[in-house]
Design goal:
The chain is built from 18 helices and 8 strands. The chain has 373 residues and is an alpha/beta fold. It has 2 domains: 166 residues, Rossmann fold; 197 residues, Up-down Bundle (Dehydroquinate synthase-like, alpha domain), CATH 1.20.1090.10. Strand 6 and strand 7 form a beta hairpin. Helix 8 runs antiparallel to helix 9 and helix 12 packs antiparallel against helix 14. The longest helix is centred in the middle third of the chain and has 23 residues.
């Protein structure tokens, strides 16, 4: 499927899309409080005019199984030809899941866990991100939590059919939210470069995203600069395109437990271990390398990241930690969690993402890292 991406200067094409489908045939998936604050509500009113649309918006920030079931039940009450999602990564993921799972015969849990096939049918989806971080509008993945465990459902049908990218929704984002979103995109791009699935194409896309974020996230967070925020939206989209090819690796594999058990926002959770894994993966050897191209290839790719950061590996971890701290994001796990148990993180690592890491990561490695934080 070729995804159609529209930007602010192509608003008339977005209007034409909805006219052709019929505004009354749209099912809206959106956030709650953020829907008004971000300007999404006034935008939808402008886009749809006086047309009343049904919407689904009462669900948890991290998509849960019961929320998805409720969303599908709501969707099936109508005869909709398009799902329109406007919001952050969780909103887009929820809409992506509804667009596919509303047409499945097997149970959601069975399909997500790989115990039943996915039937190749869906409702077309228009994704409009209101945060600059996840790049969810550019991926064939969608996150779903089942009993506090994170699953990443993957299927080509999950990729949104249409995307509208506009920085107009970013003006109300707080500095902390802007920082967390940017760090998610940054980590996705960095992980894409060193992933065992990296290709020349994904590497080029990811390095471009890294450069944009490294040079503009500080201004987007600390000055609220509109141009920098717009560039962050483009960078997040690129990071999504990169991981759509490569998938994420160790920092993301550990992040989900930080979110599930300690309520640390996803982008912040990913940043907690990214500096460590930058150094850890560079030290890969022939004995623990999981990339068939060998440890030299892994280091060569990481060197390209270090070139953008304008540092060598000896100073990279400290420089990255200073960058994260400079945008107001703490890396002190104990202060963030209160009573922290490293075993919880080590026992709830997402193994699906860990296998994409270029160096073997043992439970001992994880515990040692967390205990030295």
């Amino acid at each position: 499927m070729v995804q159609k991406v529209l930007r602010e200067d192509q608003f008339s094409e977005l209007e034409a899309l909805l006219r052709n489908i019929g505004r009354s045939n749209v099912f809206l998936v959106r956030g709650d409080r953020s829907y008004n604050i971000s300007g999404a509500e006034s935008f939808i009113d402008q886009l749809l005019g006086n047309t009343e649309v049904d919407s689904f918006h009462h669900f948890e920030p991290n998509p849960q199984l019961h929320d998805l079931a409720n969303g599908i039940a709501r969707f099936k009450k109508g005869n909709y030809k398009l799902i329109m999602a406007i919001g952050g990564g969780s909103v887009l993921d929820m809409a992506k899941l509804i667009s596919v799972f509303a047409h499945q015969q097997a149970g959601i849990e069975a399909i997500v866990k790989g115990d039943a096939p996915t039937e190749s049918t869906k409702t077309p989806l228009l994704a409009i991100p209101t945060t600059a971080g996840t790049g969810a509008e550019a991926t064939k993945f969608a996150v779903l939590y089942i009993d506090k465990k994170k699953y990443s459902f993957e299927h080509p049908l999950v990729l949104p059919d249409h995307v509208f990218l506009s920085p107009r929704f970013l003006h109300s984002s707080t500095p902390y939210l802007t920082a967390c979103a940017g760090l998610d995109a940054f980590s996705q791009a960095v992980e894409s470069v060193w992933s065992v699935n990296a290709t020349d194409a994904s590497e080029s896309i990811a390095l471009n995203a890294i450069s944009m974020i490294w040079n503009h996230l500080h201004h987007a967070v600390n000055q609220g600069d509109p141009d920098s925020r717009g560039l962050m939206l483009e960078a997040a989209h690129l990071s999504g395109k990169a991981i759509n090819i490569t998938r994420t690796t160790a920092p993301h594999a550990l992040s989900y437990a930080f979110t599930s058990y300690y309520n640390i926002p996803h982008g912040h959770a990913v940043a907690l271990t990214l500096p460590f894994f930058l150094e850890f993966n560079y030290a890969v050897t022939g004995d623990d390398c999981t990339d068939p191209r060998g440890p030299g290839s892994v280091r060569t790719r990481i060197d390209k990241i270090l070139g953008i950061l304008n540092t060598g590996i000896d100073h990279a971890r400290v420089q990255l930690e200073e960058f994260i701290s400079s945008i107001g994001v703490s890396l002190d796990i104990t202060s963030l969690t209160g009573s922290f148990d490293p075993e919880i993180i080590a026992e709830n690592v997402n193994t699906q993402r860990l296998t994409n890491n270029p160096r073997v990561v043992s439970k001992h490695d994880i515990l040692k890292m967390l205990q030295n934080q």
